[in-house]
Design brief:
Layout (H helix, E strand, L loop, with lengths): L2 H64 L2 E5 L2 E4 H9 L3 H4 L3 H24 L6 H9 L5 H17 L2 H14 L7 H25 L4 E4 L5 E5 L2
Antiparallel strand pairs: 1-2, 1-3, 3-4
């Protein structure tokens, strides 16, 4: 092989050998850029997925927390979400109360509703014409709320009568050293007081027949009142 041809061949071989890494570098550079873009894209997807997973985890955690058992009334469970819902339904002025007052208030309200509902079921108020009419007239009302309302109105109506209100007025008048306003001026106030007292008596009576178990944040029963 002539020297020129050999040099040319050698030069071509050297060029190819030297150039090969350059091509490889260009290829690696393209690959690197592609990998970088892919990595960035994957990072975004990972970040997005992580965000979605975090949101899902938060949602699941909130759902799990909302599902934590607070109290069991007979066979009916009252969860944290029920308590939150009861607080949200309270009048604005009551919702401004501190949590240490607000939460027990809501829990007691839910317990009372369940106790009354059980009593209403025992009296078959789901078949009562007044309950049926209430549900039909107020489309937003459900049967349970209608039963609770009717049962409580009737029970308090039996316990707080015109005669009992007048008797309470005479009792206050007889035991007071100050001048008492006319009966009609304080009748509504006395009636409200008697209804509150009657409600407490009703709730106390209903609690005697139903087991109520309170639960702590660890899900374990704390205290119980048995029938």
């Amino acid at each position: 092989m002539p020297l020129t041809t050999q040099l040319t061949t050698t030069t071509a071989l050297v060029v190819s050998l030297v150039a090969a890494p350059l091509y490889a570098q260009d290829s690696n550079s393209d690959t690197s850029d592609t990998q970088t873009q892919t990595t960035q894209s994957e990072a975004k997807e990972t970040s997005k997925t992580s965000g979605e997973n975090a949101a899902a985890d938060t949602s699941k955690a909130a759902e799990a927390e909302g599902g934590l058992l607070v109290v069991r009334v007979g066979d009916e469970d009252i969860n944290r979400s029920d308590v939150s819902g009861a607080i949200s339904a309270l009048p604005p002025q009551l919702r401004q109360q501190p949590p240490e007052l607000l939460v027990p208030m809501a829990v007691n309200q839910l317990i009372a509703k369940e106790l009354i509902y059980k009593a209403a079921l025992a009296d078959k108020l789901n078949e009562d014409s007044e309950v049926v009419a209430l549900v039909e007239e107020a489309r937003s009302a459900n049967e349970k709320d209608a039963m609770i309302q009717v049962w409580l109105q009737r029970e308090l109506g039996d316990r707080v009568t015109d005669e009992s209100v007048e008797a309470k007025y005479e009792e206050i008048k007889a035991n007071s050293e100050q001048e008492i306003p006319p009966f009609e001026a304080v009748r509504a106030q006395i009636e409200q007081q008697l209804r509150q007292e009657a409600f407490s008596d009703v709730e106390e009576d209903l609690r005697k027949d139903v087991e109520i178990v309170y639960y702590g944040s660890d899900g374990k029963p704390q205290t119980a009142s048995a029938d």
